[in-house]
Structure formats: structure tokens, C-alpha cells
């Protein structure tokens, strides 16, 4: 399966700003949940391309964990900020109510790409509502 210690390190190095206020306990829970979803999506543990082994499952769990952290971190404040005005404070939020959940971050899009390219077969469509 995945190396959770290595994955935690990778996530912290990849997007330190996304996880700066997230406890290790919360991050470990998100990683575990992401691993379960990636397994349900039938991502293979590894693939070999040109004699190079690629850890697809671990990469998928990293992308999905970062996606969850990004989307959940933004949803508590009302959505993704699309503009702000400093004098006479004005903040504008994107309407993401009709968007595919995975399309709400670059990490979600990367996860979707992995699933579409390398999943053996997707047993059922995963619809996330929040």
C-alpha cells in the first residue's frame, strides 16, 4: 500500500501553504479517507513505464488529499475568492455550486486525470455533495 510517512512529507513539501494550519491528526485522517477513495476508484498501486516504476496510488492519494484540503479550506469562508478590494473592503466569491467537485482545484483535476488514465475500471460514479 502507500507509505504514509513518505506521503505526509510529500504533502508538506508540495503545498506548505495549504496545510500550514492543519494538525497532523487531521491530515492523517484526510490521507486515510483519500486512500479509501483511491482504492474504490481502482487506482493501481504502481505502473511501469519505460522501466520506471510509478507509484500511482500514492500519487492519487496525495492529489486527492491536497484537493480536499484546498476545497474544504475555501468552502468555510464562503467559496473561492475571485477578487478583493482593500479600500472599503470588498470580497467576491466564485459560484462553484454547479461545478464538478473535482474541478474546484488543480489537485482535483490531477486526481481525475490519474483515474481516467490508470484506473482498471471505475465500479460506480462517485458523487460528492456538500
Question: How would you characterize the overall build of this protein?
Answer:
The structure is a single chain. This protein has one domain. Mean pLDDT is 82; it is low at 75-82. By secondary structure, the chain is mainly alpha-helical. The chain has five helices and four strands; from the N terminus they run H-H-H-E-E-H-E-E-H.
Summary tags:
130 residues; mainly alpha; two-stranded antiparallel sheet; globular
Provide the residue-averaged pLDDT. 82
Strand content: 5-15%
Shape: globular
Determine the N-to-C terminus distance. Answer: 29 Å
Widest sheet: strand order?
1-2
What count of domains describes the coordinates? 1
- Report Rg: 16 Å
Q: Biggest β-sheet, characterized? A: 2 strands, antiparallel
Per DSSP E runs of 2 or more residues, the count of β-strands stands at 4
The sequence of SSEs as H and E is HHHEEHEEH
- Tally of individual helices: 5
Structural class: mainly alpha
Poorly predicted regions are 75-82
Instruction: Specify the helix fraction band.
Output: 40-55%
Summarize this entry quickly:
The chain is mainly alpha-helical and 130 residues long. 50% of the residues lie in helices and 12% in strands.
Secondary-structure map:
Layout: H1 4-14, H2 16-19, H3 24-40, E1 47-49, E2 52-54, H4 56-75, E3 81-85, E4 90-93, H5 106-118
Helix pairs in contact: 1-4, 3-4, 4-5
Amino acid at each position: 500500500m502507500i507509505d504514509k510517512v513518505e506521503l505526509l512529507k510529500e504533502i508538506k513539501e508540495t503545498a506548505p501553504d495549504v496545510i500550514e494550519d492543519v494538525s497532523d491528526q487531521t491530515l492523517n485522517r484526510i490521507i486515510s479517507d483519500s486512500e479509501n477513495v483511491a482504492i474504490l476508484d481502482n487506482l493501481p498501486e504502481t505502473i511501469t513505464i519505460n522501466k520506471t516504476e510509478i507509484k500511482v496510488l500514492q500519487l492519487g492519494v496525495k492529489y486527492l488529499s491536497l484537493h480536499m484540503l484546498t476545497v474544504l479550506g475555501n468552502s468555510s469562508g464562503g467559496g473561492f475568492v475571485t477578487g478583493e478590494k482593500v479600500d472599503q473592503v470588498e470580497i467576491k466569491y466564485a459560484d462553484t455550486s454547479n461545478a464538478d467537485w473535482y474541478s474546484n482545484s488543480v489537485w482535483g483535476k490531477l486526481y481525475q486525470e490519474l483515474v481516467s488514465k490508470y484506473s482498471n475500471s471505475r465500479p460506480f460514479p462517485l458523487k460528492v455533495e456538500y
